[in-house]
Amino acid sequence: MTVRSLSTAVEARIDRAARRLLDAGHQPHRPVRVFVTEFLVFGAKQAWACAFGAMLLATMAVVHLTVPAAMRNDVLTIAAVLLQVGMLVFGLETVRELRVVLLFHVVGTAMEVFKTHMGSWTYEPGGLFVVAGVPLFSGFMYGAVGSYMVRVYRLSDLRFDRYPRQWLLAVVAGGIYLNFFGHHFVADARYVLLALVLLLFARTTMHVRIHRATLRMPVLVAMGLVAVFVWAAENVATWAGAWSYPAQLAVWQPVAPTKIVAWFLLMTISVALVTWLYPALSSGRADSAGSTADSRRPRGARAAGDPRLPSTGPAGPASARRESSAFRDRAPLG
Hints:
mainly alpha; 57% helix; 13 helices; 3-stranded antiparallel β-sheet
């Protein structure tokens, strides 16, 4: 994979400006300065990865405050389409990433049609862009989750240790998806499935490149944090009237925290879908030395001539051979 593929053209320009700012004057690497820099870069990357979801959520709030109820579904659908087109036209998202968004859209819309039919939640009636009572903007909310996952993968050079076998992940994710439908007819197996997810990822850790540092984090913690943030966004969306749960029909109230479990399970489906479309994401299993294989090795003269790479011999240690994109001249921060 070339360095160019690690970012879009717009992100490359932002990256060059960010590097000039962060490395201006080559200031001493004082601990406080290093911590603040890494913290701010981490926050900026997360915000950048959430760009589509954040814009969609802000649009919901604006539409709620400015558009008559009868027109909101269509306005939100048109706005979501324009946001997605804008992401591509202005170089904020790649065509390859759009495939993930569309897949999430299809999977999410199918579940929305069923769940609204069963009364799990409801949408405002009316509108032209509606399928079986479900406005089409609803699929973009699932697409926002997919957009975040593929963008954060690219922005942070995610690598994994002890990643579960793909077929096991597919079986558990398939069970979770079926349970979203089946629990209306048979016993709810969500907590059994939750236990399986915890067992599946119990030993899996992820490596997240920030600026110069690489953060190591249990995957379960990352999935839990994302589930909490999605739940928080769901509170904003239901307040904005995008949809309502039965307990919110009379008067709005916060979404029950138990929904975090549902979003955590949805994250498992999301991980399965993304690693299916991006096989390299799950191929970085730990080797016998505990390091993660990296497909982004430098090739040609750069591989042999970069003076910044440590070396203990002709080949160097595994960490040196796996040149992190954080140390390439043109590597993107995001």
